[in-house]
Specification:
By secondary structure, the protein is an alpha/beta fold. The protein is built from twelve helices and nine strands. Strands 1-2-3-4-5-6-7-9 form an eight-stranded parallel β-barrel, surrounded by eight helices.
Length: 346
């Protein structure tokens, strides 16, 4: 697929150890401005709660800020954790954004909590957390509200999501890393974004995406399967430099899965950390699903992932301690694929 790849950005607004959430959010906006100039197609903002490594608790707020600071790049959520919220309210948030920035807004939704169970309970309090079995109904309601109305027999059929009469509607994606989300997207005839960058169960990733593709039922919104794959990437001028910088991401991931998250650590901390054997094994396994290296190596790895999933549509997730290294990684990937030359990224 090579130079025909469509490359986008997923930004989790990482918080540096020693930095603040405010720093991370301002860097998100700076990176979005840079990504648009570099030729990336979309810029999606993540949702996390009670996780020290990430500042993005409200993607709908960041979507508005990023859209306001850019001109043409598509901006959206990657994604809103719909199980916490009212489908009507999410629809109104994104109809508002689409009214302000018509034709540029994406709405990616997920069923995962984006947090631990206690935090999920706090998000619902004084009510109870919604049972995941209601998620399919929420998605159907969300799409209905966004596009002018629910089915006539729906108990809220008379409720219209504002603002009224938008000229366009956000493109809705289902996000996931499991078969359930893939098959649901297929059944509803919606685009599907697979989170390869999670690093969990990616051996099944191609099968999950194939299942979506094979089970896909055309809808009035989408005639053919539409697939995006999110990939963790760290690119630098040399392979040695890339692997050194990526060490901060890897240690941050280790801290996160062992409940020791405290922001993305420095490269120096990663280099001096006393790794146990099981921790080294975890990092080796995690690194295997990432596309790290010099520009040519990263290009080849991303092309291989595109072939593996049979889609030209990839989103790049880049996390490290130093913001300048992060921006430089996106610059090098854009140069490797010629995004600014108009031959890729669309």
């Amino acid at each position: 697929m090579g130079d025909s790849l469509i490359l986008s950005v997923v930004d989790q607004s990482p918080v540096r150890a020693g930095g603040t959430a405010g720093d991370a959010l301002r860097e998100t906006i700076q990176l979005a401005v840079a990504a648009e100039k570099l030729g990336y197609y979309r810029y999606w903002l993540a949702e996390h709660h009670n996780i020290p490594n990430f500042a993005g608790t409200s993607p709908e707020v960041l979507v508005g800020q990023v859209a306001a600071h850019t001109n043409s790049i598509r901006v959206g959520s990657g994604g809103v954790m719909l199980s916490h919220y009212s489908a009507l309210k999410v629809a109104e948030n994104f109809r508002m954004l689409d009214s302000l920035y018509p034709g540029r807004i994406d709405l990616g939704v997920g069923r995962a909590p984006g947090s631990d169970h206690l935090t999920a309970a706090a998000l619902s309090y004084p009510g109870s957390p919604k049972d995941v079995q209601h998620y399919p109904r929420q998605v159907v309601d969300l799409v209905g509200y966004l596009n002018g109305g629910l089915e006539p027999e729906h108990p809220f059929a008379q409720v219209q999501a504002g603002p009224d009469r938008p000229q366009t509607a956000p493109e809705v994606w289902l996000l996931g890393s499991r078969y359930e989300s893939a098959y649901m997207a297929a059944k509803l005839g919606m685009p599907f974004a697979y989170a390869h960058f999670f690093g969990l169960g990616v051996d099944e990733g191609p099968s999950i995406v194939d299942g979506y593709r094979n089970q896909f039922e055309p809808s009035k919104f989408l005639e053919e399967p539409k697939i995006n794959i999110g990939v963790q990437v760290l690119c630098a001028e040399t392979e040695a430099a890339a692997l050194r910088i990526a060490a901060s991401r890897n240690l941050g991931r280790l801290y996160s899965v062992t409940n020791r998250a405290k922001g993305i650590p420095t490269v120096e901390e990663a280099e001096t950390y006393n790794y146990q054997m099981n921790e080294l094994a975890f990092i080796r396994q995690y690194s295997q699903v990432c596309a790290d290296g010099d520009p040519q190596q990263v290009k080849e790895k991303l092309e291989k992932i595109a072939e593996l999933y049979q889609t030209p549509d990839l989103s790049v997730v880049t996390i490290c301690h130093d913001f300048a290294d992060r921006v430089r990684s996106y610059e090098l990937v854009a140069e490797a694929f010629g995004l600014g030359d108009g031959c890729a990224g669309r």
